[in-house]
Amino acid sequence: MKKISHQPLFRISSCLLLALSVFVTEQSADAQTTVAPAPVTGSSAGASISGWDPYSTAPQYGSYGQAAPTYSAPTYAAPPTSSYPPPSSFPPAPSAPPPSFSTGPNSLYPQQPQPLYQPAQPFAYNQQDFQIPYERFMENLAFKTTFLPKLSNDPDTLQIQDFETSVTALFPNFLFSEHPLLVTPAFVLHLWDGPSTGVQDLPANAYSAYLDLAWNPELTPRLYAELGFRVGVYTDFETINSDSLRLQGLGVGNIRLTPTMTLKAGAVYLDRMDTKILPVLGLLWEPDSLTRFDITFPYPRLSKYWTTVGDRKVWWYVGGEYGGGSWTIHRYDFPTMDDVSDQIDINDYRVFVGLEATHPNRLRAYAEIGYVWDRNILYRSPTVPNLKVDDTLMIRAGFNF
Questions:
Q1: SS3 state at 13
Q2: How far apart, in whole angstroms, are the C-alpha atoms of residue 209 and residue 186?
Q3: Do the beta carbons of residue 370 and residue 351 sit within 8 Å?
Q4: Helix, strand or coil for residue 377?
């Protein structure tokens, strides 16, 4: 049998494979030429043509069989350079009170400790909590009511109900500093019921109208001050004399011992008949953003975050204060059986627990209940003995915005 040779078939197959590879190579080169045309020379050299954008509404070359248009890329002038470099960071918010400002409440800690002369509570916020993008001239509107009821029908009981309203105006950069001057006019209505001993007597109502100034300069990163001055008229408007005008003040120095601990020392001037001045001494400890221990005589306050309801943070706290005040009054004098002018001091000690809800828009609402003891009514007139009245409870509520 004749032997068949496969060499011709092999040669034919090799030629076919070679021709096919040449054809595929040429087709690939043509496709690449269509997608990426030759670089443009001349004034438009360096311009690039972007790829096909599937979201573009303008006609694009190479889509739906259209031929690429012939054009030269436009030449654009270089953008103008700025004459000054951009700022590396935004400046801080103007007139921001120091974070440890403690004569008024802020958005983070509830019911900040307050001086003994019971100032209206100027707003102060912690920039780490949130930032208000604008500055208001009328910084804080506040209302507060305090009720000390009669717990019995004894003649030496005294019921007190106070209604206080105030508003704070902010004047930034006071004395060329970064800290504002807070000016707070306020008005308080005092309603009194008792005592009825047949010796001592009080009018049914009295008033407190005052102007409060507060400035809290930060002298160094570790040292800042709390400064307050108040001038006011305290009377029943039946008796107005030089004793009706009272000047009060606060001066406290604060030294940051550690990032979480601050030593406080100073004095508060009350301008009462019996008590003129009291020392202020204590320690402020903030172990975290949810806890604040202000162990400061004579207005300690311990605050702790409790929960969040919606976008409102709820805190609970315990505190104490030296309460009362001094007023000129017109009263009935039983020994002489005549109306006389006099001045009285009402002094007491108070402890309380409270809840406060704070909202990011700076609205605060709070409620407190407490106990009041060592209550005394002192008279300037030597013919009337002082009176120790019964202990009672305290109910207080208010809001700030």
A1: helix
A2: 6
A3: yes
A4: strand
Identify the pLDDT of residue 227: 95
With residue 329 as reference, give the H or E element that holds it. strand 312-333
Fold topology of 138-400: Porin (2.40.160)
Q: Which residue has the higher pLDDT, 140 or 252?
A: 252
Whether the predicted pLDDT of 98 surpasses 80? no
The position carrying tokens 């005092």 is 190
Average pLDDT over residues 262-282: 95
Structure token digits, residue 272: 């009462």
Is the pLDDT confidence value at 219 over 70?
yes
Inter-residue contact 347 to 274 (CB < 8 Å): yes
Domain limits, the chain: 138-400
Residue 136 has a pLDDT of 60
Q: What is the pTM of this model?
A: 0.68
Q: Which residues pair with 303 in a beta bridge?
A: 292, 317
| Residue environment code for 148-176, b if the CB has 16+ CB neighbours within 10 A, otherwise e | bebeeeeebbbbbbbebbbebbbeeebee
Mean pLDDT of 123-142: 52
Residue 300: which residues within 8 A CB-CB, separation 6 or more? 113, 282, 294, 319, 320
d(CA 21, CA 176): 85
CA distances from 334 to 154, 191, 236, 326, 369 (A): 19, 22, 19, 22, 36
